[in-house]
From TrEMBL:
Pfam families: ECH_1 (PF00378). Gene3D superfamilies: 2-enoyl-CoA Hydratase, Chain A, domain 1 (3.90.226.10), Lyase 2-enoyl-coa Hydratase, Chain A, domain 2 (1.10.12.10). The lineage of its organism: Bacteria, Pseudomonadati, Pseudomonadota, Betaproteobacteria, Burkholderiales. It comes from the Bacteria. InterPro entries: ClpP/crotonase-like_dom_sf (IPR029045), Enoyl-CoA_hyd/isom_CS (IPR018376), Enoyl-CoA_hydra/iso (IPR001753), Enoyl-CoA_hydra_C (IPR014748). Belongs to the enoyl-CoA hydratase/isomerase family. This is Enoyl-CoA hydratase family protein.
């Protein structure tokens, strides 16, 4: 099967430099320390295919070893974010698969979410227009989300006869917008407007469509110039502490913070403060 592990394009290995990576199924560009990943099938509102799923999964796995990328922006071409799985390239073929094939596919899509959450870089989604199905999960799996008033986000799995529990939605969405609101969206599959999404906490902010990508890239650049080792630790703890009691979380944070206190960035910040200067972080 095309989407099983090892079938996507080979990516750079440990201590990689992804700035030169040429993606096959989307655009991938690195400027400074910020990577911008653009889903690029605007004529179809940027749907995902078996191969693009697999390449996205492998790319986010490789980001765990990328020295040159400190933050990632995901966006879509042509005034839409992502319409979800391609009806002809994914939905149709899925109706022909046996149970082992179906399970291989659903596990692969879940592995993309795991890879996004495991990579140390902050991931920012810039969402305009349609953000549906698996596209909504891409946005949900990001660390931060910027939207527009005209965006429409829909977890529409039940509208095609599937459960709302796709790719971790039942675990992730309630933590972002609350259990009751998440249940409504996952049961009904209705679209959430950009203004509603900001009010509910799904979007961190709403931009004008013409400035959305620039706003997301500016936010990513500001994070990329910060203490990136500490950002990676923050991301790891935000994920791990979901499964901890308060006492366990306090102990885990004590250990994480002690590690950060041993970094050169922490010492740089102290010396800059003493000298009344702005610290220049290097991520070590």
């Amino acid at each position: 099967m095309r989407y099983l592990p090892g079938q996507a394009q080979q990516l750079p290995g440990n201590r990689s430099a992804l700035a030169s990576y040429q993606a096959s199924h989307f655009r991938f560009e690195v400027e400074g320390a910020v990577a911008t990943l653009t889903l690029n099938r605007p004529e179809r509102k940027n749907p995902l295919t078996f191969d693009s799923y697999a390449e996205l999964r492998d790319l986010f796995r490789a980001l765990a070893y990328a020295d040159d990328v400190k933050a990632v922006v995901i966006t879509g071409a042509g005034e839409n974010f992502c319409s979800g799985g391609d009806v002809h390239d994914i939905i149709g073929p899925l109706t022909q698969l046996d149970m082992p094939g179906l399970l291989a596919f659903t596990r692969m899509t879940g592995d993309l979410v795991k890879a996004m959450r495991a990579c140390p870089q902050p991931v920012i989604s810039a969402v305009d227009g349609i953000c549906a199905g698996a596209g909504a999960i891409l946005a949900l799996s990001s660390d931060l989300r910027l939207g527009t008033a005209r965006s429409k986000t829909a977890f529409l799995f039940t509208r095609v006869g599937l459960a709302g529990c796709d790719m971790g939605a039942c675990a992730l969405l309630p933590r972002v917008i609350g259990q009751g609101r998440a249940a409504e969206l996952l049961y009904t599959g209705r679209s959430m407007s950009g203004i509603e999404a900001e009010r509910w906490g799904f979007f961190n902010s709403v931009s004008e469509p013409e400035t959305l990508l620039a706003d997301a890239q500016a936010l990513a650049a500001s994070l990329a110039t910060g203490p990136t080792f500490a950002h990676g630790m923050t991301k790891k703890m935000l994920q791990q502490e979901w499964n901890m009691g308060v006492d366990e979380a306090i102990e885990a944070e004590a250990q994480a913070q002690a590690i950060c206190m041993a970094t050169n960035d922490f010492h740089r910040a102290y010396h800059a403060f003493v000298a009344k200067q702005r610290p220049v972080f290097e991520g070590d």
